[in-house]
Amino acid sequence: LFPGKGILMRRDANAGAEAMARCLADVAIRVDPAARVNYLSIEENAELLNWDAEKYRQELNRRAGSVLQ
Questions:
Q1: Mean pLDDT throughout 58-67?
Q2: How many domains does one find in the chain?
Q3: How high is the pLDDT of residue 30?
Q4: Count of alpha carbons within 13 Å of 1, Cβ hemisphere only?
Q5: Is residue 10 part of a domain?
Q6: What domain range is 26 assigned to?
Q7: pTM (2 decimals)?
Q8: Dihedral, CA atoms, 28, 54, 40, 12, nearest 10 degrees?
């Protein structure tokens, strides 16, 4: 991240990685700078990583030779 400038991505990042970066930017821009942001617990993170939709996304990225897993 480069505050006030943008982000830097690897040249070999695929469309899935670019879509994820756009998604994160869309979410981040909506967060009030004064808001208290909490990190997910290990259990919450594991639950999301084992979610069927996440497994599907990871498989699509693997098939595309993704750099983002």
A1: 74
A2: 1
A3: 94
A4: 7
A5: no
A6: 15-63
A7: 0.59
A8: -60
What distance, in Å, lies between the first and last C-alpha atoms of the chain? Answer: 19
DSSP string spanning 1-69? Answer: -BTTTB----TT--HHHHHHHHHHHHHHHHS-TTSPP-PPPHHHHHHHHTSHHHHHHHHHHHHTT-S--
Give Dmax over CA atoms of the chain in angstroms: 40
The rounded distance, in Å, linking the Cα atoms of 58 and 65 is 10
Measured distance CA(17)–CA(28) in Å, rounded:
16
Establish if 56 belongs to a structural domain.
yes
pLDDT in tens, 9-39: 999 888 888 888 999 999 999 999 999 999 9
